[in-house]
Specification:
Bound molecules: adenosine-5'-triphosphate, magnesium ion
Domain ABC transporter: 9-244, 257-498
CATH architecture of the largest domain: 3-Layer(aba) Sandwich
Protein name: Sugar ABC transporter ATP-binding protein
Structural class: alpha/beta
Radius of gyration: 23 Å
Keywords: ATP-binding, Nucleotide-binding, Repeat, Transport
Distance between the termini: 46 Å
Oligomer: single chain
CATH superfamily of the largest domain: P-loop containing nucleotide triphosphate hydrolases
GO molecular function, one term: ATP binding
InterPro entries: AAA+_ATPase, ABC_carbohydrate_import_ATPase, ABC_transporter-like_ATP-bd, ABC_transporter-like_CS, P-loop_NTPase
Strand order of the largest sheet: 6-9-10-3-11-12
């Protein structure tokens, strides 16, 4: 039988250039039925570009694509979909004003007498979501959900189509460990039914646990291709970086809460997501808020930034009431990195330079004229400090790889004349590779050691454990417990959240 002898999808001699960037160089890759294939590499290595070519988003400049041994040409995503290929993209491709069910079943809504059968749609979508272990209401409007739940909706859409070949580009970047485990289990089940799966992730432990085959890209070329059982973590990391990784050094934790109070919050409430939380964060601390999707931790930063309606028994920032709006928050020195970089963090049509300087044009302007030279110099310095890999400062942000876009959002927080008094970070290193992640953690450490204050909400337990001095664990809109640095491991956090 064809399916057994031929790979589900095979690439040979594939190249892709964007202007001066040779993003994919002479790549050969085979995805086999019933196997999970991990595709790894640093930010900008060419992973998403490869996936985009295999899913018909863009065409290769050179090379061949074979489906079950037959040459194929994908001019559009529809061509790839006709071959049973489905993609869960790195940047979410959801329709925010439609319901969860409409998004999950997009293009295949059940009909009766030509009319959408919405009761059946709700049932079908609900079934796919619950197979993923996600208790999301199929009638909810997608734009109103926290990022992690949106990510689960995107994954559910990929699964609902019963694909033969499935690409997942960083599907777990906003998921907590139990949610990610649920997904991985589901993927193993699909592979057992013969589906060929390509899996991209910066979480190496997860990859090693689930994948059968692994391909590592560096600067667009394949530098390692083997079965997972024939390699190990250090070899993979060395292949990714082309060198041994720098060890990230743990920062000595400050005495908890000894510094001046920056945020003091009592009985903070917001709609259905926060049911009264109280906490205190002092200068010099990195404090984490952790929980499973929908447990309310996602909302805390929005409330402190004045972008989400809330009430509080008593809440202050530097002794004054909390800011009433994001504009006021910025004026009072609060920086904010939202979880959804595409929706809220970046002006995709603008250059890297302008995105880094975005919040601060007014301050740099003198007599209404933007001082170009100074701005460019400042943007260049921040881009290199945050390890942003871009063709040039004038490149459009939309042309950067996902991880490099995230570094731009972080760099922007420091582009003002003054250092922010507090930084609110939501999923700060989502999609950032391991080397750049360690570097960003080091920068955050320097920032608080110089008197700054940092609040982190993240679903990445490893990250929270490595970065934070203390962590509040939330469930159903309330604080369950507080863990401090000497009891802070990823597994403690996950156990507490459950
Ligand atoms: N549309 C585009 N125009 C110009 N350059 C592009 C475009 N798309 C990708 N690139 C460039 O191609 C290279 C590979 O990008 P790609 O998005 O494939 O990286 P990646 O491996 O997915 O990284 P990440 O882990 O950050 O998601 C990068 O240098 C990127 O800037
Ligand atoms: Mg990518």
């Amino acid at each position: 039988m064809n399916q057994v002898t031929h790979p589900a999808l095979h690439l040979e001699g594939v190249h892709k250039r964007f202007g001066g960037t040779h993003a994919v160089r002479d790549v050969e890759l085979s995805l086999r039925h019933g196997r999970i294939h991990a595709l790894l590499g640093e930010n900008g290595a060419g992973k998403s570009t490869l996936v985009n070519m295999m899913s018909g988003m863009i065409e290769p400049d050179e090379g061949t694509i074979m489906v079950d041994g037959r040459p194929a040409r994908f001019r559009t995503p529809a061509d790839a979909q006709r071959e049973g290929i489905r993609t869960v993209h790195q940047e979410l491709e959801l329709a925010p004003t439609l319901t969860v069910a409409e998004n999950v079943l997009m293009g295949q809504l059940p009909r009766r007498f030509g009319i959408v059968d919405s009761a059946k749609a709700m049932r079908q979508a609900g079934a796919v979501l619950s197979e993923l272990g996600a208790g999301i209401d199929p009638e909810a409007i997608v734009g109103s959900l926290p990022l992690a739940e949106q990510q689960l909706v995107e994954i559910a859409r990929g699964l609902a189509a019963r694909p033969k070949v499935l690409f997942l580009d960083e599907p777990t970047a906003a998921l907590t460990p139990p949610e990610a485990d649920g997904l991985l289990e589901r993927l193993r089940g699909l592979a057992a039914q013969g589906v060929a799966i390509l899996y991209i992730s910066h979480h190496l432990e997860e990859v090693l646990a689930v994948a059968d085959d692994v391909t590592v890209l560096r600067d667009g070329a394949v530098v390692l291709a083997t079965e997972v059982s024939d390699t190990d973590r250090p070899s993979i990391v060395r292949a990714m970086l082309g060198a041994d990784p720098l060890g990230s050094q743990a920062r000595p934790a400050p005495a908890a809460g000894k510094g001046t109070s920056v945020f003091e919050v009592q009985d903070l409430r917001s709609g259905r997501s926060l049911g009264g939380v109280s906490f205190r964060v002092a200068a010099g601390e990195i404090v984490g808020f952790f929980g499973l999707a929908g447990s309310g931790h996602e909302t805390i930063a929005d409330c402190l930034y004045g972008s989400e309606e809330h009430t509080a028994g008593h809440a202050t920032f530097c002794g004054e009431p909390l800011p009433a709006s994001p504009i006021e928050a910025r004026q009072r020195g609060i920086g904010y990195v939202p979880a959804d970089r595409k929706g809220a963090g970046l002006a995709l049509g603008l250059s890297v330079r302008d995105n880094i300087l975005l919040a601060n044009w007014s301050r740099l302007a003198r007599a209404g004229i933007r001082r170009q030279g100074m701005e460019t110099e400042r943007a260049a310095r921040l881009a290199s400090r945050h390890a942003v890999k871009a063709g040039s400062l004038e490149a459009q942000v939309s042309s950067l790889s996902g991880g490099n876009q995230q570094k731009v959002v972080l760099a922007r927080q420091f582009s003002g004349g003054e250092t922010p008094r507090a930084l609110l970070l939501s999923e700060p290193t989502r999609g950032v590779d391991i080397g750049a992640k360690a570097e960003i953690h080091r920068l955050m450490g320097e920032y608080v050691d110089a008197g700054g204050t940092c609040l982190v909400t993240s679903s990445d337990a490893e990250e929270v454990a490595a970065l934070c001095d203390r962590v509040y664990v939330l469930s159903r809109g309330r604080i369950l417990t507080q863990l401090d640095s000497n009891a802070l491991t990823a597994s403690d956090l996950t156990a507490a959240a459950l």
